[in-house]
Amino acid sequence: MMTGVAEDEEKWLAAAVAGLQQNAFHMHRAMDSNNLRDALKFSAQMLSELRTSKLSPHKYYELYMRVFDELRKLEIFFKEEARRGCSIVDLYELVQHAGNILPRLYLLCTVGSVYIKSKEAPAKDILKDLVEMCRGIQHPLRGLFLRSYLSQVSRDKLPDIGSEYEGDADTLMDAVEFVLQNFTEMNKLWVRMQHQGPARDKDKREKERSELRDLVGKNLHVLSQIEGIDLDMYKETVLPRVLEQVVNCKDELAQFYLMDCVIQVFPDEYHLQTLDVLLGAFPQLQPGVDIETVLSQLMERLSNYAASCSDALPEFLQVEAFSKLNNAIGKVIEAQPDMPAFGAVTLYSSLLKFSLHVHPDRLDYADQVMGSCVKQLSGKGKIEDSKATKQIVSLLSAPLEKYNSVVTALKLSNYPRVMEYLDNETNKVMASVIIQSIMKNNTRISTAEKVEILFELLKGLVKDSEETVDDEIDEDDFKEEQNLVARLIQMLCNDEPEEMFKIVGIVKKHILTGGPKRLPFTVPPLVFSSLKLIRQLQGQEENPFGNEEATTPKKIFQLLNQVIEALCSIPAPDLSLRLYLQCAEAANDCDLEPVAYEFFTQAYILYEEEISDSKAQVTALNLIIGTLQRMHVFGVENRDTLTHKATGYSAKLLKKPDQCRAVYACSHLFWVDDQDNMKDGERVLLCLKRALRIANAAQQMSSATRGSTVSVALFVEILNKYLYYFEKGNPQITVASIQSLIELINTEMQNDSTTPDPAADAFFASTLRYIGFQKQKGGAMGEKYGTINASDS
């Protein structure tokens, strides 16, 4: 059906163009022979093609442009006729005898253009006559294009100040009146177009009307170009008349477009000085008008004006621009009770950006905007409309982008209240934006009060939501979010221990509400941040003045114990054990033996009760041995207890190679280089001999079950431990014991049942080369190694 209509339109247009071309041809011949009467006759017939009602606005426009080109040629002909002595007044009267009104008025406008140029009559009188005569065409489409033609031919002939057509003092007003009257009539015709045709085609007509909007808008552009319109005339005459027409037409498309035109074509300083009048029109617009877009553009233009003209700021203060805009938005929302949340938030987002650009020093303005936004959103619960939530994010992001500091945003009391209206996912996005802003600008948040406000803003990332189901969480996104929180915790700092301890306490309070999935990410940074504070206090006298509120390492360790206990309850034994050992080492540095012993006890309990995987046990045991080896705070009894436990765990590992390595690692617990009271050579030798026995047992078990023995790697590792203690001066490690171990390894390697292991062979060869190298060094070390036979045969 639509295809058939389009084909018919093409035929009608083709027929009209053919008729136009034929009459234009005869018109050109008449003009060439200076035959005025025939030129008028054929031009009128040519213009009759515009009387059609069959064409859509788009096709009609194509026809109109062809006619317009011909009329320009006719206008030149009329000028030449006038130069040849033809009375332009008579010609003006003559064209009015054309049979049909539409061709008559086109010809009248064309001759009127030449009449004005001749200056035989005041331009204001001719223009007034023409604009009145055009009332004769009331068909919306034909009338719109006729008046567009009148506007086109007259725009350079208005009696403006400084124009060659300027007359007496009142002519400027006449020029303004002419443009306003033509604008008013064109808008009426444009609005009436919506009623031309059946109701089922309304959407199609609205689209066609939208395509013709520039014909009406050009009048406002012409108005803005009239030099004589100063602020007073704009304020008293032009703006009220334009707004009266905009409001009274009660057409959504026209109101939106014309309000946008007014904002775009007239100077920003005029808008600033007429804010009352301009803003007064917005609440009177139809409910379906996209007011938020137009008002946002107005605020953006005013913001840019303030940015480009530093002298304009006093004007903004003088006219109380912010207050007027804020009140206007309130009235618009009140006038449109059905306005969606998206519209209201968009308006306040634009107002906030205006405030931040024009009055960056007035944080109370920004807070006031957010408070108004909260008021509008109250009672609506979480906003689910994606467009509205996007605007809320834009609103909340504006202060961060302007000030490059979250600290400034934290001063806005209504900032957290606005965030409450975001759904869970968008809340997380906004929280991530806040953390990224802190990291990007390296913002220092150094007071407990600000940290409290900040974590209230970030609760979407820190706290488990009751509505969120585990299955809905994207693991990669979750890890990225929690890593952001972890990085933030590390950035919180204050040089004053008391204040920093308060910050740690606040962070602890918030992260412990995070649930089992979050704690493994958030507890470690809090622990290390607390340990950093402990090291800051290290060496200070423990509460010298007896002040109960003073921050002491003991208090911090108590807090750390609570935090790690929460992590244990998940459970996360591996991570918890590591953190207990870190705390034990910090307590060691602070010479707090009971605290260090308690942390080690907790680590041992975790090892015994929670860690059952053999690989995890090996890793945990190595960490325990390594940490215990560095401890110097323990007395003999406590150290013996802990050491005995560690060696006992080593012997109970599942795999023999793991047992062997753990046992020879325990030897380091009895020999600490920088502590003379912790050098027990006999117990070191016992550990190494025990490791040898376990290695030998591993060989025998392998031979019994597989028919071949495992490689000699364990023996080579033990040999290296022998050499280490030999160099350190352990009297129990003799040349004979080293020599016998080398011979044992050689024997095992030559055994046919031993599984070949190139890595172990290379390791042994490297060890023998090292012995040879130490021999060649000479001196005391060379002398010690001198009697060792490092031959591999």
Automatic annotation (TrEMBL):
Top-level taxon of origin: Eukaryota
Protein name listed in UniProt: Uncharacterized protein
